[in-house]
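Quick entry between incubations.
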Amino acid sequence: MSEILQTVYLNDFYNLQGAKLAPFSGYSMPLNFSKGIIKEHLHTRSSVGIFDVSHMGKMLIPCNNININNLEIIIPQDLQKLETYNSVYTFILNNEGGIIDDLIISKVKIDNYDYFFLVYNSSRKEIDQAIISDLVSDTDILLDSTILAIQGPLSQNIINDLFPESSDMKFMQIKTINYKNENILISRSGYTGEDGFEIIIPNKVIIEFIKNVLSYEETLLCGLGSRDSLRLEAGLCLYGNELNENISPIQANLGWAIPISRIKQGGFKGHKRILNEINNGVSKKRVGIKLKSNSILRSHMTLHDNNEYKIGEITSGGFSPSLNISIAMAYIDTNIITKQIAINCLIRNNMEEVEITNLPFIQHNYKRGKQ
Amino acid sequence: MSEKKYTKDHEWVSIQDEVATMGITNHAQESLGDIVFVELPEIGKLVQAGDQVGVIESVKAASEIYSPVSGKIKEVNNELINTPQLINTDPENSGWYIKINIKKTDELNNLLSFNQYKKIIY
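Done. Structure below.
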């Protein structure tokens, strides 16, 4: 029995553009278009790639004190202090400090009302929505909108040309803009490590909009295959690979996403574990891995010391089109990281030497504001 | 030169003087996408039809390669070590994978004709 897959609104348009489709968390999504994953990847690094990420969950929550207090029980961010038109990366945590989901929360003004706008993982939609609707009232799940990610060093030229009012935006800022009498959201963010924007736009005007975007010669329509290799090079986590309900933000090396004020004050789920891990360290930690031979690292391959003792496991691995070697992210026993010992990956029946590296593999190219 | 034969595992085989040259089909490379790594068997190795002889990896995934016939590995395509993309650009000619000295010629009867293979892929 094959699972019945959902499709995104522009599915027919992508078929006409020669999309190769693949199942991804309940959706049939473009994996790549005719030029293939490597060309799409390199094009995004040098110019502009266009990705449909409408499978992700999108929700508006009225911004009031009751909702803020209730959200801050499960979300270790300072939502009270989040300024309008700004975004933060954060988590939904369980009682044990494990990650139920990672998400972006923005504060936006729509028709003079303040809202939190949440974008969360497709694979965690039902779970997230059940948890959040138990805690806050009047959630509005956006079903009739597309999210287009416009990513790459030249993306600014296109967005500024289409929306001159976006020219002052910095990384992790968001704006509400009127387009053809519809409210659209423009966020300067992404999942590729490049400068880029994510546009949340009502489906009734999306066909015209995407044709307009693709008419710029810098752009190339890309699929989720290159989005995955881009985010791997950028050292960004994928829920289900690097993150799950047993992994804490500290193990995932994402402690930076929890403000010090919240760590001090607590009052959120999993605070005890997170505080303990900050003070006493973690037994395993997310790191970058580079392979010395020209084989390919894949998720679930195991890492070993020279005595073949298992010391870690790969969570995402693949070929890096920018570096022309295989790279991976893995969880490794923390006591190994400080020792300068050789580490091997078991690839089929061979032990092949790997190197632990810092993340990201490719420097982020975000247009940050003055901090 | 005999006609080209195919397997249900999307491999092609071409026989000349009891030597089988094999590779993956154009349909296979299209469905795998960008090939980035090839693992070749050792020359001289004895294989049975259906044995795994190596791996071809695309950006997305690793695919095992099976020997379509029994025999001894005679030659491997070393070009693929530095230029695995040959399998994308010319899968059924210069992107060949290995050559095998055939042991049992009657095994060739188990392989598919082009028309039979076409029915599998369309």
